Amino acid sequence: MTMQTVFERPKSLKDVPSHFCPGCHHGLIHRLVAQNLDRLGLQQQTIGVASVGCSVFLYAYLDVDVIESPHGRAPAVATGAKRVQSDKFVFTYQGDGDLAAIGTSEIIHAANRGEAFSVLFVNNTTYGMTGGQMAPTTLLGQESATSPGGRSAERDGHPIRMAELLAQLDGVAYSTRVAVDNPQHVRQADKAIEKAFRLQRDEGRFAFVEILSTCPTNWGMDPRQANARVAEEMIPCFPLGTFKDTQSQEGNQ
Amino acid sequence: MSQSTPARVFLKGNEAVCYGAIEAGCRYYFGYPITPQSEIPALMSSELPKHGGQFLQAESEVASINMLLGASACGARAMTSSSSPGISLKQEGISYLAGSELPGLIVNISRSGPGLGGIDASQADYFQAVKGGGHGDYRMIVLAPHSVQEMYDLTMHAFDLSDRYRMPAMLLGDSLVGQMKEAIELRPRPEVELPAKDWIVTGKGERSEQRIVKSLFLGDGELEAHNRHLQAKAEALRANEVMAEEVALDDAELVLVAFGAAARIAKTAVRMARETGLKVGMLRPITLFPFPERHLARLAETARRFLCIELNTGQMVEDVRLAVNGRREVHFYGRPPGTGSLPTPEELYEQIRESY
Ligand SMILES: Cc1ncc(C[n+]2csc(CCOP(=O)(O)OP(=O)(O)O)c2C)c(N)n1
Ligand code: SF4
Ligand SMILES: [Mg+2]
Question: What enzyme class is recorded for this protein (chain B) (predicted)?
């Protein structure tokens, strides 16, 4: 009987134990990034820009060159990097505290300039690394370390929808939101990342992929409950879909 | 520019910075508008593209220093310029440059503060520049030009030092040296040997090892070792890179200490004092970090007294006192910056007489 390999570690992903909590989606998202770098033959020409958050150790998992950025500034760092190494593949990997709070200015202006890099935005509705404080993406009513009694619209404002917001900007070629809570969603996320990466590689375009993610530790849930929360609570507020696609007729839906 | 006789041109200090930077091979500029440094982005936006470089107006000073960080990590000679309020915003990025051992030039054509302050010549940012305006135990190379020629020359020198020590460098000027016009020589870039940039991120290419530019060190003992390494570089700068101008110091009984714009005015006052028979000289620190401590310690053996002159209420004087170490009196004269508050040579001459 001949054996066929149906599943293996992408070359761009290192063979090391992960520090992520059980049930955290960061590890799965890292894998999707690695597998797309492999698929598009980008590993040797990639410069990743890590942000400050639970994904700060991007370089410990992805076998590519990496610049570690100050909190929220990854799009500015990537702008400088890509303008110098314009033939290289550059992406940022940012959390929701990083991109949607302290780094809103940098992401909006990099997107508006249409910088030729790709952004992976991991939205877990909280500040994971610092212990589960309220983020701009925290859902109404969601308990966090700094929203006792739950997020209140009057006191704290409403959750911010970055994929929709950035879709308004002319510099953006593609803005989409995906999730990785079931196999079908994982396949869609994989395709979205591939599309974003191709847009940079082939056309030098800016693309934004928001990925809904879990933080069981700070949500006070077990991995199974956390995974279920994505469909039950997050997707109703953060609908999956593509908000801008300059390549497709069905864009701007 | 590699002609044998350097061109003589009439330039503003801020323009000289641009030509110095381009001659030094700087091809990337990132900045945000602020007075009194506006000539720099304006000239860079028209000149850099002619040299195959890029000018980018950022959305803020925070973004521009981080663009510089990215460009520097990718191996480019890159710069940003601003003035005091904008330099405050860059401090986080400067700390990250220092921690990640990235070179890069930050030009501060400083103005008066605190807060919005005003746009007059000021040396109120001395502490911020040399004591570490950002967080962490780091040092930054700080050069203080006092003429348009030095704006040109020291810009080139700052890039070389910054690359050699893998440390950010600041050119600390003010509206006086930035705005005044003088005839200068556009000298060719000095030929210096610099270490290969074998640490930059380029994508792995043929390499099997990844490269990482970072400032987070969480392993046991890692950060202490990193900080010791950073301090060793600062020590090497102190040992090898101090620059200061000595004016009429041979028999000086009173030594003035002043840098930048204040030193220009003080030079005239020293001449006036010499004409009336007073034995007065001046030490002008050109590198504010590394500071000319040994020059001052040596002078403390022969001079009777020191008079530190600054366009602020007393910042560098603290470093002069440390270097003199109680052996001689150190007087201070300064005026808080503000419109019309630049001291005149006559005013400084009066101070010289009082301190003599
Ligand atoms: C200037 C600055 N402010 C605050 C912090 C502290 N801090 C570290 S990570 C983080 C937030 C991380 O949250 P997020 O970006 O959502 O990433 P996650 O850990 O959830 O993946 C914060 C506020 C910092 N490092 N720097
Ligand atoms: S704290 Fe949250 S985001 Fe961070 S690794 Fe754990 S589960 Fe993931
Ligand atoms: Mg988060």
Answer: oxidoreductase
HSE, side-chain direction, 13 A CA sphere, residue B157: 18
The answer, yes or no, to whether any atom of ligand 1 lies below 6 A from the CB of A178, is no
Contact A35, A10 (CB under 8 A): yes
Q: Does this model's pTM top 0.90?
A: yes
Q: Does A46 touch chain B (CB under 8 A)?
A: yes
Fold for the domain defined by B245-355:
Rossmann fold (3.40.50)
Q: Which positions 69-128 of A are in contact with B (Cβ < 8 Å)?
A: 69-70, 73, 76-85, 88-89, 105-106, 108-109
Which residue of B lies nearest to A91 if distances are taken between CA atoms? B203
Superfamily covering domain A26-138+161-244: Thiamin diphosphate (ThDP)-binding fold, Pyr/PP domains (3.40.50.970)
Any residues with Cβ below 6 Å from ligand 2, and which?
A 20-21, 24, 26, 54, 124, 128-129, 215-218
The reply to whether B8-185 and B245-355 are identical in fold is yes
Q: For B48, phi and psi rounded to 5 degrees?
A: -60, -45
Q: Give residue limits of the domains in chain B.
A: 8-185, 245-355
Does B63 contact A65 at a Cβ distance shorter than 8 Å? no
Residues in chain B predicted with pLDDT less than 70, given as ranges, are 1-4
Q: Whose CA is nearest to atom 12 of ligand 1?
A: A53
A41 — alpha (psi -120 to 50), left (phi > 0) or beta? left
**Would you say residue A252 has pLDDT above 50?**
no
Task: Compare all CA atoms of chain A with the CA of B30 and give the residue at the minimum distance.
Answer: A80
Identity of residue A132: G
CA angle A163, A167, A172 (to 5 degrees): 110
Angle at B76 between CA B74 and CA B78, to 5 degrees: 120
Beta bridge pairs of residue A90: A47
Instruction: Compute CA distances B90 → B66, B137, B139, whole Å.
Output: 8, 17, 15
A109·B59 Cβ contact <8 A: yes
pLDDT score recorded for residue A250: 47
Asked if A121 and A106 count as a contact pair (C-beta separation under 8 A), the reply is: no
Bridge partners of residue B109, in order along the sequence: B173
- CATH 3.30.1480.10 given to domain B8-185: no
pLDDT tens digit sequence for B290-313: 999 999 999 999 999 999 999 999
